[in-house]
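I am going through a labmate's work and have reached the protein record below. What it holds is a sequence and that sequence's fold in token form. Please read both lines and tell me whether the tokens look consistent with the sequence. Do not assume that whoever made the record got everything right. Thanks in advance; the entry in question is below.
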Amino acid sequence: MLRDLGFDSQFLEDLRESLRLACNWIIDIAQVKTEKLTIESNSNDLQHKYWRGAIRGEYNVAEKRWDFFCPIWHTGQAVKALTLAYPILKDDRLIEATNLEAEFILKESIRDPHDPDYGLILAYEDVGDGVNTSAILESLDGLISLSETTGRKELWDFVIDALNWVANKAYITGEGLFRDLYVYRERAFKTPPWGHVTGRPLLDDGVFLKGYRKTGEERFRQIFFEVADRLLRDEYPPGNWVRYPPCNAKTELIHPRHAYWWGYPMIMAYEETGEEKYLKCAIRAADWYVHAQRIDGGLFRGTRIDFNTHSFGHATSGIACATILWLSLTNILKDERYLDPIRKALRFCMKMQFRNPEDPNLKGAILEKVLPPDHTDRSPYHIRDLGTIFFIQAAAKTIMSLSD
């Protein structure tokens, strides 16, 4: 089906060039090259001791200021992006960069076998010394991808050790829920910033099922399906989960990547079992994105359950994630329902790329969002590495699918 997307040769050439420029931005501009921070802010006081290889996540264009939000999982997804792009671009710098990025993650893993938190990855996010379970899980697929690309078998050891830590410490057995915000120095889970939430059903990247397939550890498979079934029970609105953070049930605002993190792995659940209930959930998540997509191909971060939106703050990363989901379902369903949304999404992402900027920090980056005016004429642009990272993943998957 994907060969029938209707892209002409010029579009595919432009897409490939956009992919190359985006990868160059990750490697040459966004990646930290020093062990200690130099030009970057660290406004959340993230307690990393070693920064080399981390991806700078936030860039305020008006102030020309770099910052971080959660460099562990962002960097893990950058590893995944560059390994996907490598067979297309065949640039050895991509592998050199991913090895550097992986080292940042590995150095933030507890490796003392006598430490009761052995295997924990210190994935600090919105609290300087607090580890979010979701951030651990979202960092792992990059290590898996790099292992499969380069043959670095030891990377799987870190993945399995991290999964064991999450299973032992964060998972609420039988509930399909994970606790968040673990403070390593206190050996305790704390109340997350988003309030009193018992736990969240994290299915991100299907890493527990991948861990089961690698090791045969039945507990990993059990956790994956307990979470998937919990998500089926708690799904609302169709194809999404507004009751759980980072969505906001009170304001009915849905996070732009929520349906991707929890809807996309439903395809893995379907492939593992053949049960249609999982495939139908993935389709509902994909359809949610179709309704949320704007006529020019983009997506707003502030999208309510009735699909009304804010006027500012689009999320290019969200529509790139939607593209990944649509591509996979197109290959399974063998029909054309998602072809037009895919075309619009990719064109939108490419329009958001800085190709000839005056600011050299922007060269190749994908604009994530436009901020509301602040009563001045300062630039309203805000760069998040995730816009570029997920565009690379979507573009690489598209090009590979068209060449199959």
Q: What stands out?
A: The two ends are 11 Å apart (CA to CA). The longest strand covers residues 381-384. The chain has a mean pLDDT of 96.
